Amino acid sequence: MRITGKVIGMSLMAAMATGCSTLSSWNPFASEVKDKPAALVDIKGGMAVKTAWKYSLGKAGAYTFNPAFAANSVFVADADGNVARLDAATGREQWKVKAGSDLTAGVGVSPNGNLVVVGGVKGNVIAFDGSGKQLWKVQATSEILSSPVAANDVVVVRSGDNRVTAFEAATGAKRWSVLRTTPALTLRNAPGIVIAGGNVYIGQPGGKLLALTLTTGVPRFEVVVAEPRGATELERVSDVSGTPFVYENDICAVTYQGKVGCFDLAAGTARWNKPASSDVGVGVDQRFVFVADANGAVNAFAREGGQSAWKNDKLGNRRLSTPASFGRSVAVGDLEGYVHLLSREDGAMLGRVATDGSAIRSTPVVAGSNLIFQTQNGTVAAIAAE
């Protein structure tokens, strides 16, 4: 049996029990939670944390929608086809449009805020200008789960068949396309794309990180973050999770059932790697690389050398989001819509704030003095801390 397209709504053990010979994708978020999420305890002392503003959008459904920040605005989308631009400081809606299609991924925004791109059902790629006017609509080769990325003159999209395609920002004309092979079994997640230094970096199935020249798609390097290991296809799943993170001359990434590591941005030379397993991406700042692992622990590694700095395991089985460095804290969302703030120095709990009770799967984004989260039920929340 080959499972494609739709989310697998069964536990990992159930998947093994079906007798499937080949699986194409497995969604860790769709699997049953075997262990009860850790109970939340009162936080004494800590720091003042509050919700600066909230905005209500539609639900994400089976997909993950990441907010984006550019030109003092936050850009958001939902599964029903709504795309909106908000003032980052106040949450005031600047415009909201219908994409004309249900959506599966977004949002990608150019640095100047003049190009906004989302992924639609059946592989549609839809682009708008900074005022919400549709510019073009083109067809990718298959379903899009990863947020598109946009420079000022090009849009890059990764489709479900692991084809990376670049389109002209002005017209939607195809500039280049690169197809990579995939293992028999991969995570059904949204491995991210990032543009930096004239290259585009794409997390790959099988634990690899691929760098392509942005203008032509010519490969610059492909490095192994973690080698797949194990006797079965399930044990050998070691895909790069979430979006690789660029900080100065480093690019850092984490895999599921594998490792976390940082590499030289230009050459791909490995700086360090350490054992880790996560189905979301990494957070990085000047001193640390943060990983929310598959068991719900938040880990900090020294950015220089990779030594373990601290580990907080008080959020076990709470399905944590990608961490984000935020002032003197590191913040993560969870399966019940809570945002937790931990000390970036030692991992101690500093604060907590509720959103709407639904899971936070999106990658948080720093927008000025606020940290933006989007829940699966469509609440966009700006979190502010002292």
From TrEMBL:
Location in or out of the cell: Cell outer membrane
InterPro entries (alphabetical): BamB (IPR017687), PQQ_b-propeller_rpt (IPR018391), PQQ_rpt_dom (IPR002372), Quinoprotein_ADH-like_sf (IPR011047), WD40/YVTN_repeat-like_dom_sf (IPR015943)
Cross-referenced Pfam families: PQQ_2 (PF13360)
Topology within the bilayer: Lipid-anchor
Domain of life: Bacteria
GO biological process, one term: protein insertion into membrane
Keyword presence, Membrane: yes
Signal peptide feature range: none
GO cellular component terms given for this protein: cell outer membrane
Domain Pyrrolo-quinoline quinone repeat: start-end pairs: 80-312
Sorted UniProt keywords: Cell outer membrane, Lipoprotein, Membrane, Palmitate, Signal
Record carries keyword Signal: yes
Family indicated by similarity: Belongs to the BamB family.
PANTHER family documented for this protein: CELL SURFACE PROTEIN (PTHR34512), OUTER MEMBRANE PROTEIN ASSEMBLY FACTOR BAMB (PTHR34512:SF30)
Quaternary structure note: Part of the Bam complex.
Known function: Part of the outer membrane protein assembly complex, which is involved in assembly and insertion of beta-barrel proteins into the outer membrane.
Protein name per the record: Outer membrane protein assembly factor BamB
Species whose genome carries this gene: Pseudoduganella rivuli
